[in-house]
């Protein structure tokens, strides 16, 4: 063996995994147990005191989850990772490690709607506030920074698709103000974009989507880039101050460039509790083994379907950065040269009624509120996820009455096109 690092395809299959030491099982076993027996009293004490790595209780660590954590850290190029129960839990535990009551963060205005809700409403209960900035205008992020700002948050490819974020520009601003850049890399996955290579400090995922990839398990991941200097920085006491729970240990000093991941685990996950079931970790690991193949096929299929729709008389516009005419095409070429992902929106000449008719008449596409499945998925936001908003609010959120969102699956693109054509003419 040489010192050369394995390639992405190899890491997707092997990183973190080895034949099971006890049984020789080649696939990663599902360690479906709540707890782990200590060798002796001293071993137990060293585990509880964070003096040794090992398993105590599945809310905090589990060997199946550990393989998933190591694999995503390798694929993203981070120092360590934490598996949690959902993408929202990953966002929440990240902010819990960064923020104190009265603190603020700046977030892109182009995010998954659930994240917008979480930031605007639920986070208020913790005394955290969000300032929104135009995703296309890095200067707007800088203008929103105050002395209480603890992070910048964005998505690499923004849900509902069609928007590519200039990560390097946001990273420059974050570095200038010495705050971490947190990137939700759900839509891109590390196959399309590796945010740490563009200056991100922390990556979060909804593993529910393309990482798991088969629409069968909810999960989330936090990846520590190991880049941010928490030690000695009083603005981030979870990492930089002595922890009374651990006999005055300073996590950033003891754990160095994975101190953030440890804080998320031993302060966030341990105390707040959104643990990932080992069974879901197993399913997500299986999904990741084929991630490179699937993401390429998702992106290729999406481009074929987007091109077809852009020529269709019933379609007024298509927002997919893979299209050469798209306003984000140059950013897509720079950040995601292998393809622009699976999810995009388009507009129907016939407005709201046409949107409702389309979702009712599609046969192969499933009408549901998810993305990142092997199956192709469709939703008409104005009649579902955004129905409580006024028309003006819907349009501002990119969910106007005419908008349809697709998550293109792995079927034959000719079948997807036939299904769309049939439903558009119905
Ligand atoms: C980009 C993005 N981030 C986070 C989430 C939340 O993830 P989860 O549903 O796993 O909690 C979603 C869910 O759709 C998402 O699309």
TrEMBL record:
<dbReference type="InterPro" id="IPR015424">
    <property type="entry name" value="PyrdxlP-dep_Trfase"/>
</dbReference>
<dbReference type="GO" id="GO:0030170">
    <property type="term" value="F:pyridoxal phosphate binding"/>
</dbReference>
<dbReference type="InterPro" id="IPR000277">
    <property type="entry name" value="Cys/Met-Metab_PyrdxlP-dep_enz"/>
</dbReference>
<dbReference type="GO" id="GO:0004124">
    <property type="term" value="F:cysteine synthase activity"/>
</dbReference>
<dbReference type="InterPro" id="IPR015421">
    <property type="entry name" value="PyrdxlP-dep_Trfase_major"/>
</dbReference>
<feature type="modified residue" description="N6-(pyridoxal phosphate)lysine">
    <location>
        <position position="209"/>
    </location>
</feature>
<keyword id="KW-0808">Transferase</keyword>
<dbReference type="GO" id="GO:0003961">
    <property type="term" value="F:O-acetylhomoserine aminocarboxypropyltransferase activity"/>
</dbReference>
<comment type="similarity">
    <text>Belongs to the trans-sulfuration enzymes family.</text>
</comment>
<dbReference type="InterPro" id="IPR054542">
    <property type="entry name" value="Cys_met_metab_PP"/>
</dbReference>
<keyword id="KW-0663">Pyridoxal phosphate</keyword>
<dbReference type="Pfam" id="PF01053">
    <property type="entry name" value="Cys_Met_Meta_PP"/>
</dbReference>
<dbReference type="InterPro" id="IPR006235">
    <property type="entry name" value="OAc-hSer/O-AcSer_sulfhydrylase"/>
</dbReference>
<protein>
    <submittedName>
        <fullName>O-acetylhomoserine sulfhydrylase</fullName>
    </submittedName>
</protein>
<dbReference type="GO" id="GO:0071269">
    <property type="term" value="P:L-homocysteine biosynthetic process"/>
</dbReference>
<dbReference type="GO" id="GO:0006535">
    <property type="term" value="P:cysteine biosynthetic process from serine"/>
</dbReference>
<dbReference type="GO" id="GO:0019346">
    <property type="term" value="P:transsulfuration"/>
</dbReference>
<dbReference type="InterPro" id="IPR015422">
    <property type="entry name" value="PyrdxlP-dep_Trfase_small"/>
</dbReference>
<dbReference type="GO" id="GO:0005737">
    <property type="term" value="C:cytoplasm"/>
</dbReference>
């Amino acid at each position: 063996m040489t010192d050369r690092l394995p390639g992405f395809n190899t890491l997707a299959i092997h990183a973190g995994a080895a034949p099971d030491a006890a049984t020789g099982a080649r696939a990663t076993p599902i360690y479906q147990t709540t707890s782990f027996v200590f060798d002796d009293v001293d071993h137990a004490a060293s585990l509880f005191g964070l003096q040794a790595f090992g398993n105590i209780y599945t809310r905090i660590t589990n060997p199946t989850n550990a393989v998933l954590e190591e694999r995503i850290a390798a694929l993203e190029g981070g120092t360590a990772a934490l598996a949690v129960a959902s993408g929202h839990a990953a966002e929440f535990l990240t902010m819990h490690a960064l923020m104190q009551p009265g603190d603020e963060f700046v977030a892109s205005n182009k995010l998954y709607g659930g994240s917008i809700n979480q930031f605007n409403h639920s986070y208020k209960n913790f005394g955290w506030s969000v300032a929104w900035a135009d995703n296309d205008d890095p200067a707007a992020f800088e203008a929103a920074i105050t002395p209480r700002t603890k992070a910048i948050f964005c998505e690499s490819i923004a849900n509902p698709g069609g928007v590519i974020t200039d990560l390097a520009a946001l990273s420059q601003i974050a570095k200038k103000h010495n705050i971490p850049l947190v990137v939700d890399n759900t839509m891109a996955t590390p196959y399309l974009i590796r945010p740490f290579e563009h200056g991100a400090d922390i990556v979060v995922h909804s593993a529910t989507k393309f990482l798991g990839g088969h629409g069968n398990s909810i999960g989330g991941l936090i990846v520590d880039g190991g880049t941010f200097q928490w030690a000695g920085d009083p603005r981030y006491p979870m990492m930089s101050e002595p922890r009374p729970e651990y006999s005055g240990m300073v996590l950033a000093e003891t754990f160095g460039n994975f101190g953030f991941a440890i804080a998320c685990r031993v302060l966030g996950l341990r105390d707040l509790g959104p643990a990932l079931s080992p069974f879901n970790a197993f399913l997500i690991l299986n999904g990741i083994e084929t991630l490179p193949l699937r993401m390429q096929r998702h992106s290729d299929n999406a481009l074929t379907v987007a091109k077809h729709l852009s020529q269709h008389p019933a379609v007024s516009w298509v927002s997919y950065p893979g299209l050469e005419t798209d306003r984000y095409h140059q950013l897509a070429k720079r950040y995601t040269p292998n393809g622009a992902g699976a999810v995009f929106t388009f507009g129907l000449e016939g407005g709201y009624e046409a949107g409702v008719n389309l979702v009712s008449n599609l046969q192969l596409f499933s009408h549901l509120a998810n993305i990142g499945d092997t199956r192709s998925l469709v939703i008409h936001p104005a009649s579902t996820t955004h129905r409580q908003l006024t028309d003006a609010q819907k349009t501002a959120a990119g969910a106007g009455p005419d908008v349809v969102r697709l998550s293109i699956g792995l079927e034959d693109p000719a079948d997807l096109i036939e299904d769309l054509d049939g439903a558009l003419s119905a």
